[in-house]
Amino acid sequence: MDQEQSKEHTIGALFAIGAFVLWGIFPLYWNLLNNVPAEEVLAHRVVWCIVFMFIILLALGKFKGFIEEVRELLSQPNQLVSIIIASLIISINWYLFIWSVNHEHVIEVSLGYYINPIVNVLLGVLILKEKLSFWQKVAVLLALIGVLHMTIQFGSIPWAALGLAVSFALYGLCKKMVKVGAITGLTIETLLMTPFALFFLFYLNQTGSSSFTSESPGHLLLLIGAGIATAIPLLLFASGARRISLSLIGFFQYIAPSLMLIIGVMLFHETFTLVHLGSFLFIWSALFIFSLAKTKWFAKLEPKFLQKRKSFQG
Fold this sequence. Notes:
The chain contains 16 helices and no strands. It is mainly α. The chain has one domain (about 5-140, about 160-270). The longest helix is centred in the first third of the chain and has 26 residues, at about 75-100. It is globular and about 65 Å long. It starts with a helix and ends with a helix.
C-alpha cells in the first residue's frame, strides 16, 4: 500500500468510525425530545433531512447529477420499486428507534443492532440463496438461542430489537438492488416520504397539537437538527465505505450497539439483569464466531467429517 492509498484508508477508517460513533450516541439526542411524540419527531426528521440534503447537493455542485440519476431511475421500474420500498422500510426503522429510546428501551435497541448482521445472513440465505459455512451456522444458532433465552425468561418477544434488526437488514437488501449513489439514494428515499411528513405536520399545526410551535426555541432547534443528525452519519458512512474493506466496516459496526448499551445502562439507568447478560453473551459469542468464520484458522476447526466431504467434493 503506497502513501496515498494509506492516507485514503486512514481517512476512510476515521469517517466510518465517526459514523458509527454518531449512531451509537443517537439515543442521547432523541432522549432530549422524549416529550415529543415519536411520529412527530419522525416527520420533522424527514422534512429537515431533505432540506439539508438539498443544501448538500447544491453546495457540492451535484444537483444536476442528482436530477439525471432521478430521470434514469424513473426509466427503470424495478429500481424505482426497490427505492420506494427502501424508503418505507427506513422510515419504519427510524420510527422504531425514536419510539424505543423515548420509551426506555435503549438496551433493546442495542440488542437489535447486535443481531442485525445475523439477520443479514439469514436474508442472504432465504432470498439470495447464499450458502453458510459450518461456523456461520453455529453463529446463527447461538444468536437465535440468545433471543429465545430472553423471550422465554421475560415471557415476551423483544419486538423493538427484532423490528430494528429486520427493518435495517431489509433496507440493506433493497439498497443492494438500487444502483444510485449514496447521496442521491438518501435524498430520493427522504423525498418520497416528505409529502406524508408535511401533511402530518400541517395536520398537527391545524389541530393545535404541534410541538414545533408550542415548545421552547431549544426544542424547535432540536427538531430542525434531527434532519442534520440523520444525514451526517449516513454521509460519513458512505464516504468511509468507499475507502476501506467490507470486513473492516463489519468490525466497526459493533461500535454503535456497544455505545448504546453503555448509554442505556450507565446514563439512562435501564435495568440490565442476568437474563440480559445471558442473552448478550450468546449474541456476542455468535458475532465473534461469525466474524472469524471464513478465516483459515476457523476452517481447520470444522468437524472432520465436513473437512473430508469438502476434500471429496474438491
